[in-house]
Specification:
535 residues; mainly alpha; two-stranded antiparallel ribbon; LysM; Transglycosylase_SLT_dom_1; LysM_dom_sf
């Protein structure tokens, strides 16, 4: 990751001639690559040499000499480089090839359908093996991302959004459609699939200039004349090896059984339901509505870089087909967008998680959770997402689930009292934030007065809206808190501090210290039990 970010910070040449330098406001050296990005495996960029004792078996030699394979229709071209890569992926990099084959199984059927729709040769479904090993999280040193390794500029040309919130180059479905259109455009330009593949790797401008200087229209003839080209037009080794590597992998894929590989299963495709989610959707809550962990949800939706969908755009989420109904029902609830008002904070010199936590009144563990990081380090110039507009309470609930049953029971009684005094009926589109703003009160007051544990609201639900004056607010909270306080024995977790625990239970730090006969400077430790009185 350090290498990825460092090389991105240094800048890189565009992959296609259409790519211009990004606008000044987009030239951010931080957060171009997600925290969970994976560097390309060395076997992707390898320039192998045949090692002693790596002669092909008779079976392997027969496969290498075959010209056609079932369901594949690109003419095979023999060359020393094809044999080199064929030997490499059958022997030294065999374990890697097996891993790639297994990783490709959920996506191969979809890729084949899309390429069939666009009338492309079927063997082009193997191109992600050459690009990324079918890894949706892969990023190159130059900043190309996703299964199809789009550069940001090229991806944007084909409708893939890539910013601090989302990177649709990692969306295996949208990126596959974009790759099919891109390959079709390259073939329309060059009229030859091997040249189109070379242009996919090096950029169409580079290949066009090289062909013009070499006065030829064939990839293999171009590679033979490569040394005679000017330095500007000369093809790099990566591009010269690109087509032979593709052909070698095609031969292996066409003959998996013969070569001793496990056959690929074509019935392991993810059963998903694509849905549009509005800007600012709480993705973590969406996942939980379907009984999913964030890890499992993100496995299906690697394009999302935060646990909140981009506030500025409608995005696509892929839901498990068997859980989609519950999750779609959650999206219909007004409370599904408590994070629409998140703040994108620009880290300055001297900032730390603690400083930002104090400045915005958001616990450190919540800040780290919504930014998908465990790192304690912040660097000047990077950006972090800070809950705002009353969403921090919902974020705390999401980051620290599992409150005591006594607390839940007390909250239920508080809600019952508030419902009897309810003077406002929730309407479609309402959120706690919008209601608080309309009545000049706070989200915290509304939650305490109504015994709410989350920011979810239902149309027709009754809420008690206290007066906006300080005295009236205190009285409302007092009346809602007539239920006898319950004692909770809270077990301190890693990362907890007195401030975060007080926020978690909605109590004052001073009260927390009083109940436990400690001071604000007392160090608490993991596993320690603290008394907390909650309503």
């Amino acid at each position: 990751m350090g290498l990825l970010i460092a090389s991105l910070a240094a800048g890189c040449a565009p992959k296609t001639p259409q790519e211009a330098a990004p606008p000044v406001e987009e030239q951010v050296t931080e957060n171009l690559v997600p925290d969970d990005a994976e560097a390309l495996e060395p076997e992707i960029e390898a320039a192998p040499e045949v090692a002693p004792g790596e002669d092909l078996t008779q079976t392997e030699q027969a496969v290498l000499n075959q010209r056609f394979g079932l369901l594949f229709d690109l003419e095979q071209h023999e060359s020393d480089e094809v044999e080199l890569f064929f030997t490499y992926y059958n022997h030294k990099a065999r374990k890697t090839m097996e891993r790639w084959l297994e990783r490709s199984q959920p996506y191969l059927p979809y890729v084949r359908r899309v390429f069939t729709k666009y009338g492309l040769p079927q063997d082009l479904v193997l191109l992600p093996f050459v690009e990324s090993g079918y890894n949706v999280k892969a990023y190159s040193w130059a900043g190309a991302g996703g299964m199809w390794q789009f550069m940001r500029g090229t991806g944007k040309l084909y409708g893939l959004q890539s910013d601090w919130w989302i990177d649709e180059r990692r969306d295996p479905y949208k990126a596959t459609d974009a790759a099919a259109r891109h390959l079709r455009d390259l073939y329309d330009k060059f009229g030859d699939w091997y040249l189109a593949l070379a242009a996919y790797n090096a950029g169409e401008g580079k290949i066009a200039r090289a062909l013009k200087q070499a006065n030829c229209d064939d990839f293999f003839e171009l590679t033979e004349k490569n040394r005679k080209l000017s330095r500007r037009n000369r093809l790099k080794q990566e591009t010269r090896h690109y087509v032979p590597k593709f052909i070698a992998i095609s031969k292996i894929f066409q003959n998996l059984d013969t070569l001793g590989f496990e056959p690929v299963s074509w019935d392991l495709e993810y059963e998903i339901t694509p849905v549009k989610v509005p800007g600012g959707t709480d993705l973590l809550a969406l996942a939980r509505a379907g009984g999913m962990s964030w890890k499992d949800f993100h496995e299906l939706n690697p394009a999302f870089r935060r646990q909140v969908s981009p506030p500025h755009m409608e995005a696509t989420a892929y839901l498990p087909a068997d859980k989609a109904d519950k999750m779609i029902a959650y999206l219909d609830e007004p409370g599904s967008r408590p994070y629409a008002g998140y703040t994108r904070y620009h880290v300055r010199s001297g900032d730390s998680w603690w400083v930002i936590s104090r400045r915005y009144g958001v616990p450190i563990n919540v800040l780290k959770s919504v930014n998908n990081t465990r790192s304690n380090t912040l660097r000047p110039g990077q950006y972090v997402m800070v809950p705002g507009h009353g969403s921090s309470a919902a974020a705390i609930a999401a980051a620290a689930p599992g409150e005591s049953s006594s607390s839940s029971s007390s909250a239920a009684k508080t809600r019952a009292i508030a419902a009897k005094r309810g003077n406002y009926v929730v309407r479609s589109g309402d959120t706690l934030w919008s209601i608080a703003q309309s009545f000049n009160t706070t989200v915290s007051t509304l939650r305490k007065s109504n015994g709410l544990r989350s920011s979810r609201l239902k149309v027709g639900q009754k809420l008690y809206i206290p007066n906006s004056t300080e005295a009236a607010t205190k009285q409302a909270v007092k009346e809602a808190g007539k239920v006898k306080a319950q004692l909770v024995q809270y077990k301190v977790r890693r990362g907890d501090n007195l401030y975060s625990i007080s926020r978690k239970f909605g109590v004052k730090v001073s009260d927390l210290c009083h109940w436990n006969a400690i001071s604000t400077s007392t160090t608490i430790y993991e596993g320690q039990k603290l008394k907390v009185y909650v309503q």
